[in-house]
Write a structure and sequence with these properties.
alpha/beta; Rossmann fold; 2 domains; four-stranded parallel β-sheet; 13 helices; 43% helix; globular
Length: 328
C-alpha cells in the first residue's frame, strides 16, 4: 500500500496586517474544536467580541516577529516538509491541508500518515487536524495518525541537552487549554480534574489528557537533563476569554518569580515543535518585559526544535514507525 505523509501545524496569517489577521482569526476561532461552544455563542463571541478589536493588536504582534521569509512558523514547517520529502498543510490559512490531501491522492497514495506537530494531545489541535483531514479524504484513502510523542526519546533528548548547561531557573511554559476541554476528552468522565492528583494517578484518561502529557513531558526532560525539582517551574500560557484555563498562568508566574528571589530565568515551550507567535512574541518579547519589569535581571528563550538537525531527526524517527501508527 502506497503511503504518503502529511505534516500539519496550526498556521499563520498571509501577512502581518490587520485584514489578513482578521481572516485568519475568523477561520481559527470559528473552529468548534478551538472554541467548543454552541454555534450561536461561538459566533457571537468571535464576530462581536473578538474580531472588532483583536486583529489590530495581533497584527502588531505578528509584525514584531515577521521575517524576510514571512511567518517563522510556516517557514520552519516548509523547511521540515521539503527536507523530509513530505506534504505540508496548515489547519488554517496556507499552505492548505485540503490541497495537501489532494496532492497526495494525485500521487496515487492509498494511505495517508498524518503527523500534526503537537507532541501532546488536545482536541483543539490534534483532534481538529484529524477531523479536518478525515473530512478532506472523503473515504478515498486510509488514514493513520501519529500517537502523541511527548515521551519519544527523539523529542525529549535534544530538549534535555539544551538545558544541561542552563544555570538559570527554568520555566516550562505550555500552551493553555480551557479546563472544560480537558474534562470533555476524558473517556472515563470521572478522572480528569475530579480525582485528587489526577495526573499522577494511573488512568486510561491519560491517553487524551493534555495536562497529564504536559507534566509527563516536563518530567521526562528534567530526568534526562538531571535538573533538580527546585530549579524549574511549570505554567500555561495564551489563555483567551474569561473561562477557567489550566493554571498556573505563565504571565502571572513571570511577574511573581522575581519576588521569590528568582532573577535569572530561562523559558522553554515544549508544546511547540516550531517557534511561532506564542513563543517569539508572547514569551520572548512580552514575557521578558513582564519578568524584567517585576525585577528580573536576565531572561533567555530556549528555541524549539524547528528545522534543526534534531528537529529533522525527531520527525524521521516518528515517520519510520508510520506503519505502526493507529488507523482511524
Amino acid at each position: 500500500m502506497k503511503r504518503g505523509i502529511l505534516l500539519m501545524n496550526t498556521g499563520s496569517p498571509e501577512a502581518p496586517t490587520e485584514d489578513a489577521v482578521r481572516v485568519y482569526l475568523n477561520e481559527f476561532l470559528m473552529d468548534p474544536f478551538v472554541i467548543d461552544l454552541p454555534f450561536p455563542l461561538r459566533y457571537a463571541l468571535v464576530k462581536w467580541a473578538i474580531l472588532p478589536k483583536r486583529p489590530a493588536k495581533s497584527a502588531e504582534a505578528y509584525q514584531a516577529i515577521w521575517t524576510d521569509h514571512g511567518s517563522p512558523l510556516v517557514h520552519h514547517c516548509r523547511q521540515l516538509a521539503d527536507g523530509l520529502g513530505v506534504e505540508l498543510g496548515m489547519a488554517y490559512g496556507n499552505p492548505s491541508f485540503k490541497q495537501a490531501v489532494e496532492n497526495l491522492l494525485a500521487q496515487g497514495v492509498e494511505e495517508i500518515g498524518l503527523l500534526p506537530l503537537f507532541p501532546q494531545y488536545a482536541a483543539a489541535t490534534v483532534g481538529s487536524c484529524v477531523a479536518g483531514v478525515k473530512k478532506a479524504i472523503k473515504g478515498r484513502a486510509k488514514l493513520r495518525v501519529v500517537p502523541p510523542f511527548y515521551r519519544e526519546p527523539s523529542y525529549i533528548q535534544p530538549l534535555a541537552e539544551a538545558l544541561k548547561t542552563v544555570d538559570e531557573h527554568i520555566l516550562f511554559s505550555y500552551h493553555g487549554l480551557p479546563t472544560r476541554q480537558l474534562k470533555k476528552t476524558d473517556p472515563t468522565g470521572a478522572h480528569c480534574l475530579k480525582v485528587d492528583d489526577c495526573c499522577q494517578v494511573p488512568s486510561e484518561a491519560h491517553g487524551t489528557c493534555y495536562r497529564h502529557q504536559c507534566l509527563a513531558t516536563t518530567q521526562s526532560i528534567v530526568e534526562a537533563a538531571g535538573i533538580p525539582e527546585d530549579r524549574y517551574s511549570v505554567s500555561f500560557q495564551s489563555r483567551l476569554g474569561r473561562a477557567e484555563w489550566l493554571a498556573p498562568y505563565t504571565d502571572a508566574v513571570l511577574r511573581e518569580l522575581p519576588a521569590k528571589g528568582i532573577k535569572q530565568l530561562a523559558v522553554i515551550c515544549p508544546a511547540f515543535f516550531c517557534d511561532c507567535l506564542e513563543t517569539l512574541e508572547e514569551i520572548e518579547i512580552q514575557g521578558q518585559a513582564s519578568f524584567k519589569g517585576a525585577g528580573g535581571e536576565s531572561f533567555r528563550m530556549i528555541p524549539c526544535l524547528n528545522n534543526s538537525p534534531a528537529g529533522f531527526a525527531c520527525l524521521e524517527a516518528l515517520i519510520k514507525k508510520a506503519g505502526e501508527w493507529p488507523a482511524l
